[in-house]
Amino acid sequence: MVGVSEAKADGEAWEILAALMNDDEAKRRPAPLYARLHSLGDRFRMPNGTTLVAGHHAVTELLRSPAFIRGSAQGAYRPAFSRTTQAQNDELAALGSDVGAALTVLDPPDHTRLRVLVQRAFVPRYVRTLEDAIPQVIDELLDEIDPTVPVDIVPAFASRFAPAIMAHLIGLPADRINEVATLSAIFMRGVDPGTDFETQRASVIAGRAKRDIVRAVMADRRANPRDDFVNALVEAIPESLSDAECVSLLQIMYLGGYETTSHMIGNGLVRLMRNPDQLALLAADPALIPGAVEEMLRMDSAIQLTKVIASEGASLLGEATGPGDVFMGLFGAANRDPRVYPDPDRFNVQRKGRAHLAFGGGLHYCLGVNLARFELERVFAAFIARFPRMQLADPDPPRLISFMQRAYRSVPVVLAP
Is 273 exposed, middle or buried (0-12, 13-18, 19+ CB in 10 A)? Predict the structure, then answer.
């Protein structure tokens, strides 16, 4: 913050945050604002008491230090900076009264108990069943596309691929996959910081509808057991987890497995087509694709922020914090910190150095990280192998207007120009 007082930096950071929450253009193109934050400092005190954290080292500390907690279910369904009234908050609480605390907002020991359970049921066995299914689904969807005419990759591929894989894992009936995908999108719009009451209300209602579908799947497993992931969790009730916890686990896994993967397919393809020199590198040397996926995640991570609470004795960058202080960490800004990533706005599939924060970190590091990487690497390998000269049909595809999520509503392309 050379030449800028702390108070002035905090004031400008507040203006930047307000733009990111309220200005459509800032939501579409946040990188210049992130760059300005980095020129001002690592963290900033907002007028409402929240601390905004943008520096890579500082956000990493928020994620990894056990002194920063999620606060269990406190505020789990109320976005930061929400301007809702008490009456509206009461209505939202009543509509969401059936929800159990999600893994993403739990702290130890409950978080540890559930995470260990899911890792045992999720990682070792059932994800491996997807290794053959993923390439098969990719080929089936690409075979349906005429590469010689413009096609929107979002509805033609991204929004079909990710739900199909998660439905395979979780066992959603085929006739409900599209419904759950739609509900997931509505739900995620309601957790954006500063979003209005009606959007939050629609989000809570969509979340409730999704939980009803998950309960139906669980009831089916009880009546008709299968050797699958859902059955493994259902069998753990009530000894290791509650019914409500099982519902929340399955719901959050679908959100993570569908929303983020679907968004990253669109984000990554746009990056490739806007950088034909990098696309050519990958076409010439497919061994670079895993690194390219990490660069896509760094530049356009599907989730842009997190919220944590300081516990007793917490400190950030060596400076003590007050217990109960709220911190908002910006993944998107941290992943473009110029002190960690030289020339951070350049897409470089051969970039080396510090790992990005797109999957979070610490206790809440993404459970599905290996599955996500496996999916994305094979999706981009298939597109590049089949369509090495693919081009955007719209040079500026329309973005999802969101601060929390980075995604495209539409990605029109010509795959074989």
Answer: buried
CA distances from 176 to 152, 172, 259, 279, 397 (A): 23, 7, 16, 36, 29
**CA separation for the pair 2, 192 (Å, rounded):** 32
* Whether 216 contacts 204, CB under 8 Å: no
Q: Tokens 């369904």, residue?
A: 77
Is residue 307 helix, strand or coil?
strand
Q: Is 79 helix (H, G, I), strand (E, B) or coil?
A: coil
Is there a contact between 319 and 341 (Cβ–Cβ < 8 Å)? no
Residue of 104, 80, 42 whose CA lies nearest to 333: 42
- Residue 81 gets the label, from left (phi > 0), alpha (psi -120 to 50) or beta, of left
Contact 16, 36 (CB under 8 A): yes
Widest CA span in the chain = 68
pLDDT for residue 75 is more than 60:
no
Q: How many C-beta atoms lie closer than 10 Å to residue 202's C-beta?
A: 15
DSSP state of 363: G
Residue 287: count of CB within 10 angstroms of its CB:
7
Burial class (CB in 10 A: 0-12, 13-18, 19+), 343: exposed
Q: Which helix (H) or strand (E) holds 117?
A: helix 110-121
Residue type, 348: N
As a whole number of Å, the end-to-end CA separation of the chain is 48
Residue 350 near residue 288, CB atoms below 8 Å: yes
Nearest residue to 43 (alpha-carbon basis) of 79, 72, 14, 75:
14
Cβ partners under 8 Å of residue 237, min gap 6:
243, 246
- Beta bridge partners, 388, equal none
Query: Average pLDDT for residues 286-297, to the nearest whole number?
Result: 97
Question: How far is Cα 362 from Cα 355, in angstroms, rounded to an integer?
Answer: 13
Query: Regarding beta strands 326-330 and 51-53, do their DSSP bridges make them parallel or antiparallel, or are they unpaired?
Result: parallel
Q: Is the pLDDT of residue 310 over 60?
A: yes
In tens, the pLDDT along 170-188 reads 778 878 888 888 898 899 8
**What are the structure tokens assigned to 364, written together?**
């809440």
**Which residues in 6-107 belong to E strands, given as ranges?**
43-45, 51-53, 68-69
pLDDT band, residue 414 (cuts 50/70/90): very high
Domains along the chain?
6-414 (1.10.630.10)
Confidence of residue 73 (pLDDT cuts 50, 70, 90): very low
User: For residues 284 and 264, what is the distance between their CA atoms, to the nearest angstrom?
Assistant: 23
